[in-house]
Structures are given as structure tokens and as C-alpha cells.
Amino acid sequence: MISQTAEYALRAVIFLAQHPGRTWTADAIGQHTRIPVSYLSKIMQALARRRLVSSQRGLHGGFGLLIDPDRLTMLDVVSAVEPLMRITNCPVHQAGLDRSLCALHRRIDTACQAVEQVFTQATIRSIVDDPHGVHPHCVDPA
Fold this sequence. Notes:
mainly alpha; two-stranded antiparallel sheet; 6 helices; 2 strands
């Protein structure tokens, strides 16, 4: 439903939220989240451009979370790297026909809308503090 880029961005942000006030190199984040560092570096720069994470070069540089995990949503993170696409008109539009959504594309857009709603309601804090107490295997809490 979401791209690998979006999923990697979420894993990286969740890792940073687990370590408030700290900065981490892309290498360290990649190691703990099992994300290839070359790919992760591009993702972290996109998150930094949207001011979700800080980015500091140099010996003591790294990435840190800038937004409070209580306010940062899954949708904020996903939108920073690869926004969810909604369907506003039937992509198989034929000249002279109504541009409203056909039955197929209306249902696809309804599913997209549901994902968008869940991502809007889910904060990063709610994932980090999940009451089930099991950290996902994709994020090593260090």
C-alpha cells in the first residue's frame, strides 16, 4: 500500500523517536533499522528538507528528530518522502465521457482515503509506546 521509501522513512523516524535528544549518523540508523545506508541517506535528507529531522554534518553530526513524536503523524513522515496519491478522476478517461470516478477507481480511492485517515490519526509516539510491548523486528531499539 505504501512504497519501500515511505516504510524506510517511518522506520528511521521511529528509531529516532526511541532516542529523544540524540543524534545518529546514517550508518548507525541504517544498522539499527536494517535500511541500506545509501538509500537511507537520501531519505534522511528528504526528511531534513521538510524539517522533520535535523541534519548536522561533521565529526559530531548526524540526524535527530525535530518534531515532538506526540504531534508527528505517520502521514507527516510518508508525505515528506512520497505523498499518498488520491484518485480524483478516472485515469482511463475517454473523450466526451464524464470525468467522475468509475466504480473501480472510486473503490481504490476509498481505500486510499482509509489509509490516509489511519496515517493521520497514528502518531509516532503511539507506535513507539505501543501497549503490546514488542518492538518491531525492523527497528532495533539499541
